[in-house]
Write a structure and sequence with these properties.
The protein is mostly helical and 181 residues long. The protein has one domain. Helices cover 59% and strands 0% of the residues. The protein has eight helices and no strands. The chain has helices at residues 3-16, 31-46, 53-66, 80-83, 91-108, 116-137, 144-154, 158-165. Helix 6 crosses helix 7 (144-154). The longest helix is centred in the last third of the chain and has 22 residues, at 116-137. It is globular and about 40 Å long.
């Protein structure tokens, strides 16, 4: 299975856990929803295993799928192994965090929403913040792939590494979360 198909299938599986979409289309996100999305994303980065974290993830994922004004696109890259985790190291939680980070970047930087590298980098940075928080609570949840990304981030090389590893992400073929349902 090629990597893009794997990422699409993994994202589809994660989105299948989101509540079913309503029959009618909704309008663009509201300022209050965008504020809540930023707040919830940052809380998940700090407390990925909190009691309400699963409900927060469901709300965020459903909201991202439903709104027409923020488009998060999947892309094959260094986070792919996370989507294949059996749950022992919280890979799927970390993987979906990238979607939240990308959405928040677009909220906070609307003029850069079309900069695929900036959006993808923001998603990975959100994963890395979440990973550091997760390791404080569960040191056994270590990922070599994320440790390598942390090292690249410390050296100031994360965007360059992602640009190389995610070659082709700027092509419009990647699925949006809503496309997977």
């Amino acid at each position: 299975m090629n990597r893009t198909l794997l990422v699409t299938a993994s994202l589809a599986a994660l989105l299948a856990a989101a509540p079913a979409l309503g029959e009618r289309e909704r309008g663009p996100s509201t300022p209050a929803e965008r504020r809540k999305a930023v707040e919830v994303t940052r809380r998940l980065e700090r407390e990925p295993l909190a009691r309400r974290a699963a409900a927060d993830r469901r709300w965020l994922l459903q909201w991202i799928v439903e709104i027409p004004d923020i488009q998060v696109r999947g892309c094959s890259g260094p986070l792919d192994p996370l989507a294949e985790d059996d749950g022992n190291r919280f890979g799927k939680i970390l993987y979906v965090q990238s979607v939240f980070g990308m959405a928040v970047f677009q909220i906070e930087h609307p003029r850069s929403a079309d900069d695929w590298l900036a959006v993808q980098t923001a998603g990975v940075e959100s994963v890395l913040r979440t990973y550091r928080s997760l390791l404080r609570a569960r040191p056994q949840a270590r990922w070599d792939e994320l440790d390598a990304l942390l090292a690249a981030q410390r050296r100031g090389r994360l965007p360059a590494l992602l640009e190389e590893a995610m070659e082709g992400c700027d092509e419009p073929a990647g699925p949006a979360p809503g496309d997977a349902i």
